[in-house]
Design brief:
Helix content: 40-55%
Largest sheet: 8 strands, antiparallel, barrel
CATH architecture of the largest domain: Beta Barrel
CATH superfamily of the largest domain: Hypothetical Protein Pfu-838710-001
Strand content: 15-25%
Structural class: alpha+beta
CATH topology of the largest domain: Hypothetical Protein Pfu-838710-001
Mean pLDDT: 92
Low-confidence stretches: none
CATH class of the largest domain: Mainly Beta
């Protein structure tokens, strides 16, 4: 069993833990009414990582800690700014399976072993506001670190950290930092105890392996594409624990990340060798498909649920909500199992390793060394050309099944075009941004149209089940009609939206 909490904190250098005369009185700082001494605690933590420090390299830590009020296993995952998410599990002799799974996208299946032991004598103070509410916790730690990687190296230092209570305004951190700075106390140079321990016990600061050497030319098309690819791979790795824990919107974000990566690897084949990237693209497509079952069900459930809620009560005949729930529970459960099975599979681990290799040893082609403007503009126009062809074909077809399929293909081409503009915005500027924005508008219309196609198919199945059970089918037919009307509106709206995205002036700006 695990529990999690968000922690927001900042670390500072501290002169001494024995004599804290250097610590300024923070009373009166941004609502702090008093500073309450909570005594000292002895903390003993063993940090686990792979031999090549894959957790530390991705700003995550896993430790087994005794002492203090939160003894147990702690997996810390990075969030934005000063925040991290800490997932806790009870004390045990070995790494809990739940935490091992949450770290899998980072470890990629490599064995976890003890790497550093850190013992701290912690002097604790509560920063208390009016009414006695704790606003933050200030701790001064006398730290002793010992390498467990066979070197026997040791290090010691003193540091201070300020951690906000869960409901405290983050602005308090800025106010406290200003007061500390006025007394000569600055930020710690290491982001975590582990990072400092690794550095000061001669293990070295954790760094990503990089075999790029001089192959990546600064300011080149290759550098810009690789930066984007690195960011998307990093996002996928970070999203894995959220998907496993079924956090809101996590599946959608991970699936979108897969699609962005796939699209960019295809769009920029002139920069990255397709003999290497095409197999990666195939596996990203597989993962996106596995995630898609759960995401598509989520979208459909929300869409149909909203339709039912919006109906006047006199138009709802039979147990409509109950019937929808029965349909949803079965499909949602199956889709969830499919998602977890994919993330636990050897195939997924192989994909993670392939993505890591792509980052560490990028398969650059000759054009990667060129200036980004021309290379990326040409690639975007090529992808845009495929979108233009698919749109023309779809708009020529009469309404019906074939047109629905053609519009769906155009939607996928619109996404690829939009994603192709994203890494180019730094070098191409406004033209890339404008095209991306206008193609996104096309994609949204086409996306709503496709959602109506999928919803109508689901409504047919639900109607058949309701009819077989002797339930009224009037309401389901009404919902089907609403979805058909929505699709018709989308088809009427599409031509002017597409006209904005297909202006010759916009395309010409990319070709300069």
């Amino acid at each position: 069993m695990t529990e999690s909490q968000r922690e927001t904190e900042r670390k500072y250098e501290a002169p001494s833990a024995d004599d804290t005369a250097w610590l300024p009185d923070l009373t009166g700082t941004d609502g702090i009414a008093s500073v309450v001494d909570e005594g000292t605690a002895e903390l003993d933590a063993v940090y686990y990582d792979t031999d090549d420090l894959r957790l530390a390299r991705t700003s995550a830590t896993l430790r087994r800690r005794t002492g203090g009020s939160d003894a147990g296993w702690h997996l810390k995952l990075p969030l934005s700014g000063d925040s991290r998410e800490e997932v806790r599990a009870p004390l045990s002799e070995t790494v809990p399976d739940t935490l091992r799974e949450l770290a899998l996208s980072r470890t990629r299946g490599a064995e976890l072993r003890p790497v550093v032991r850190i013992r701290s004598t912690r002097g604790l103070r509560q920063l208390v506001g009016s009414g006695g509410r704790a606003l933050a916790e200030l701790s001064v730690d006398a730290v002793r670190a010992e390498s467990l990687l066979g070197t026997g190296s040791r290090a010691a230092w003193t540091e201070m950290e300020v951690e906000l209570a869960s409901d405290t305004d983050p602005a308090l951190l800025d106010a406290v930092e200003k007061a500390l700075a006025a007394n000569g106390i600055g930020r710690a140079h290491s982001p975590s105890k582990l990072a400092r321990a690794l550095e000061e016990t001669d293990v070295g600061a954790p760094r990503m392996p990089d075999a790029r050497g001089e192959a990546v030319v600064p300011g080149s098309a290759g550098e810009e594409i690789l930066r984007y690819v690195d960011e998307r791979i990093h996002a996928l790795v970070n999203l894995d624990p959220a998907v496993r824990r079924d956090l809101p919107d996590a599946v959608h974000q991970m699936r979108t990340t897969c699609r962005r990566l796939r699209s960019v690897l295809r769009s920029y084949r002139s920069v990255l060798d397709r003999k290497v990237t095409d197999p990666v693209r195939d596996e990203l497509k597989w993962l996106s498909t596995e995630l898609g079952a759960e995401r598509d069900q989520e979208v459909l459930r929300e869409r149909l649920g909203a339709r039912i809620e919006a109906l006047p009560p006199e138009l709802v005949f039979g147990a409509v909500s109950a019937r929808l729930q029965v349909w949803d529970v079965g499909d949602t459960s199956e889709a969830r199992l499919r998602t977890i099975a994919a993330l636990d599979s050897p195939r997924y681990l192989a994909l993670l390793n392939s993505l890591a290799s792509l980052t560490e040893r990028p398969p650059l082609r000759g054009k990667a060394a060129r200036q980004p403007g021309k290379v990326m503009g040409k690639a975007i126009l090529k992808v845009y050309g495929r979108l233009s062809g698919r749109m023309a074909h779809a708009l020529e077809l009469p309404p019906g099944t074939e047109r629905d399929k053609a519009l769906h293909e155009a939607r996928k081409a619109a996404k690829k075009t939009r994603y192709a503009t994203e890494p180019a915005r730094g070098s191409l500027g406004k033209p890339a941004k404008r095209l991306g924005k206008r193609v996104k508008a096309v994609q949204q219309v086409l996306g709503d149209h496709q959602d109506s196609v999928v919803a109508r198919d689901a409504l047919r199945k639900v109607t058949l089940a309701a009819h077989a059970a002797g339930e009224p089918s009037f309401t389901w037919g009404l919902l089907y009609g609403q979805e058909q009307a929505a699709a018709d509106r989308d088809e009427r709206e599409l031509p002017p939206v597409w006209a904005e995205a297909s202006r010759r002036k916009l395309r010409k700006a990319l070709n300069r």
